[in-house]
Amino acid sequence: MSSASTGTEPDPEQYTVPDDRAGGPNDRRAAAKWRDARVVEVAHPAVDAVVLRLAVPERVQHHPGQHYVVRLRTPDGYTAQRSYSVASAPGDDLVELFVERIEDGEVSGYLADVVEPGDELEVRGPIGRWFVWSGRTPAIGIGGGSGVAPLVGMLRHAGDLGHVERLRLAVSATTRARLPYAGELEAAGARIALTRETGPHAGRLDAEAIGALVDPAAAVYLCGSARFTGAMETLLVDAGQPAGTIRVERFGPTG
User: Fold this and answer.
1) pLDDT tens digit string along 221-242?
2) CATH 3.40.50.80 spans which residues of the chain?
3) For the residues 53-73, what does the mean pLDDT come to?
4) How confident is the model over 92-110, as pLDDT tens digits?
């Protein structure tokens, strides 16, 4: 997940979560501070993406669905920052971020093309209290493109808890090569729809596919572009999923 930043200081309440609270005000204040994280691993799963694994000093344990802000600073003091969802489970020693390289993107281009292991990045987080899942209750995750990243964090958390059956996933991308964590999602039995590819996963997440996921007792975590999430939310409600159970995280390219 990536989004534009206004450059203003966030509301401290963004650093709280609604359930499974791991800490109080001290943790929230700590999460709001900028830190110099060390880049431990860099992987390029596709030509337009990078996976960064970071060692964050005095890290506050995140909840699946939260995100970090990454800030870049030039020698003349100019800064640019973007938010990226955490793809690692809370129990992981490192914070894993999936970054899609956006054309003319100030931050994503640097992270994808320049950053190497050993570099340091300014980060702040974890952030978010709406789009989080404790892993204790049934959930449905629906993601489009890089919007699958927070769902992968949820999947890994469910695996650590030994309850992968609590999370059902449906994801969409143009091709398998452009689907983040494709192998991991396939192994987990996610419903995969590839809109520009032939083969067993060819197709779209249509009314039938979404209708098969509907569960009024489950929370739905929907992440992707505004167009994708809007279409999926309509299909969910039309199929009988209560609107109040649907949590949406929208993102869009930023220049």
Assistant:
1) 999 999 999 999 999 999 999 9
2) 139-251
3) 97
4) 999 999 999 998 889 999 9
Q: How many CB atoms lie within 10 A of CB 156?
A: 22
Architecture of domain 12-127: Beta Barrel (2.40)
77 pLDDT exceeds 80?
A: yes
Omega cis (within 30) before 150: no
3-state secondary structure the chain: CCCCCCCCCCCHHHHCCCCCCCCCHHHHHHHCCCEEEEEEEEEEEECCEEEEEEECCCCCCCCCCCEEEEEEECCCCCEEEEEEEECCCCCCCCEEEEEECCCCCHHHHHHHHCCCCCCEEEEEEEECCCCCCCCCCCEEEEEEHHHHHHHHHHHHHHHHHCCHHHEEEEEEECCHHHCCCHHHHHHCCCEEEECCCCCCCECCCCHHHHHCCCCCCCEEEEEEEHHHHHHHHHHHHHCCCCHHHEEEEEECCCC
Neighbours of 82 (CB within 10 A): 24
| CATH 2.40.30.10 intervals, the chain | 12-127
Half-sphere exposure of 20 (CA within 13 A, CB side): 13
Note whether 176 and 182 are within 8 A (CB): yes
pLDDT band at 160 (very low <50, low <70, confident <90, very high): very high
Q: How many CA atoms lie less than 13 Å away from 227 in the CB half-sphere? A: 4
Assign domain 139-251 to a CATH class.
alpha beta
